[in-house]
Write a structure and sequence with these properties.
Length: 267
């Protein structure tokens, strides 16, 4: 137990509790937050996933194919959604937390802007980025200052979900395991730096829900197993709806070598 855990607030003492659930890729975060929301009756807030936003923001590209300015556009759009959805006085459970956008961009600055791409693609990107990388790093640092400051103002406590599950290589996630581990480290470092009360909660989803409910003395209005089943159904339905979109399938098609090289030349 850390010094942050000792200060964790209780819902019974603060019925307007703002709780954020942190976790990097393929940690079961969406299912956990959805199930926790259903079980407790506390609304879940979130930003649309990158794959949902890209069909309109940058048609024809996956996250792995974005250049730096397109990543800025994506990050700002997600930041806008989080600010809007979390601008409430009443209790909520945040899927991710507002400084996730900084963690994502910072990790890509450190590992490479296309962390899961072929070696030659990453090599071209690295060279192409030399003239402008300093600018993007300064932008990233500023984004970190802004999002961490907002997190301190908005959230009462945090739960972090550690990396325990295999990552789904779906073409939208950064398929580099190094990138995922770095993102996890950055999330923990940020929580320590901000001084927000937090707990690291692992294990199967039913165990997670029970632990979080106990830690924060949350109400239970729907049986946990029933809440998890409904959460899994909702998450799957969202993914199925997206995959039914023709624009999503266009993003998944194999791109020609010439087109991939043209993208690689743009940082």
């Amino acid at each position: 137990m850390t010094k942050h855990e000792l200060k964790s607030p209780k819902f019974s003492e603060n019925p307007n509790l703002h709780l954020a659930i942190s976790g990097t890729y393929s940690t079961g975060k969406s299912t956990t937050t959805e199930a926790l929301s259903i079980a407790t009756g506390i609304p879940r807030t979130h930003a649309k996933t990158s794959r949902e936003l890209l069909v309109d923001l940058v048609p024809g590209k996956t996250v792995m194919e974005l250049n730096a300015m397109e990543l800025v556009k994506l990050g700002l759009r997600r930041f806008e959604e989080r600010v809007h959805n979390e601008s409430r006085e009443s209790a909520f459970i945040s899927d991710g937390g507002v400084f996730h956008e900084w963690v994502y961009f910072e990790a890509r600055m450190r590992v490479g802007i296309s962390p899961g791409a072929d070696w030659w693609f990453k090599g071209i990107k690295k060279v192409a980025g030399l003239p402008v990388k300093h600018f993007y790093q300064r932008y990233t640092n500023t984004l970190g200052d802004i999002t961490r400051a907002r997190a301190k103002r908005v959230y009462d406590a945090y739960v972090h979900l550690p990396v325990e599950f295999d990552m789904e290589p779906d073409g939208h996630r950064p398929v580099s395991e190094k990138f995922r581990r770095l993102s996890d480290d950055l999330l923990i470092e940020s929580l320590d730096r901000m001084g927000i009360p937090y707990h690291i909660v692992g294990g199967p989803i039913p165990d997670r829900i029970e632990k979080i409910v106990k830690i924060f003395d949350l109400p239970v209005v729907v049986p946990i197993e029933e809440a998890i089943e409904e959460a899994q159904r909702r998450v799957k339905a969202d993914i199925d709806d997206l995959k039914a979109d023709a624009r999503f399938h266009d993003q998944q098609r194999q791109k020609s070598l010439a087109r991939r090289i043209a993208w690689a030349m743009r940082y």
